[in-house]
Write a structure and sequence with these properties.
The chain has 16 helices and no strands. The protein is an all-alpha fold. It is globular.
Length: 246
């Protein structure tokens, strides 16, 4: 029978202390930073995914235990397992609901941007694709940064289904919510807007930017227009700069 201890031991075989130190700096684990206190083994993502694949028959109880680990890569492995579990349950609404509810009960352990990005679209996004989306707005209003990011990044699944409106509404709500938007939320929002462009939504994105580019945070706007041509990028940045100068 697969156990969380067995999976952690397997991951430990790939640990690299020197790499762990560098990764900890990259993920801002210093005092007062968004990843404060996170601990790394120093294992690259492809290797963590391979370990998750090796233990693909792990149970939800094992995933629960693995998510409590202090090590970032163990929590990542747990989420890769959970995503696969959710995918396999596509014909079982009861099991999908159980996984979805469990995921939302563990957001305090999904506590860095890469953990959110590797899981939110494939669990939360998939779950709400053909269901009410109220949960996205509740997550956006949460005081927990990671729940805010889950709300935005989960819409990647909707975007890939050519459903853009929820993303626009959430970002409008985010911009109205606070004058100072966290850098990780600016990047997540800009990324989703860029994905709309990539998924045949350029016209819709341009309409959105005509209304909001002048007041969007700079980082969010830069991410949103990254795949546009130089002339278009300059146009939207000028709209923002001219307003900021007033």
């Amino acid at each position: 029978m697969i156990t969380a201890v067995e999976i952690q031991k397997t991951l430990g075989q790939y640990a690299d202390a020197k790499k762990a130190e560098a990764v900890a700096r990259y993920f801002k684990t210093g005092k007062g930073e968004y990843g404060e206190g996170d601990v790394f083994l120093g294992i690259n993502v492809p290797t963590v995914r391979l370990v998750a694949k090796q233990y693909h028959e792990a149970t939800l109880d094992v995933v629960k235990e693995l998510l409590q680990s202090e090590f970032h890569e163990c929590r990542a492995c747990a989420l890769f397992l959970l995503v696969e579990m959710f995918k396999k349950a596509h014909k079982n609404d009861v099991l999908q609901k159980e996984i979805f509810d469990f995921y939302l009960s563990q957001t305090h352990r999904i506590n860095n941007w890469d953990l959110v990005d590797a899981s939110a679209p494939y669990i939360v996004g998939k779950y709400v694709l053909n269901r009410p989306r109220d949960i996205l707005y509740r997550l956006l209003e949460s005081p927990l940064l990671w729940e805010n990011r889950i709300a935005i990044v989960a819409t990647l699944c909707l975007i890939k289904s050519k459903d853009f409106n929820e993303t626009f509404r959430l970002i409008e709500r985010l911009m109205a919510k606070t004058p100072k938007i966290h850098d990780l939320m600016q990047k997540a929002s800009g990324w989703m807007l860029r994905e709309i462009h990539r998924n045949d939504g350029k016209n819709e994105l341009c309409d959105f930017l005509e209304r909001h580019a002048a007041t969007m945070p700079r980082t969010m706007l830069r991410y949103a227009i990254e795949k546009m041509d130089a002339r278009e990028r300059a146009y939207y940045m000028t709209k923002r700069s001219s307003t900021s100068a007033k």
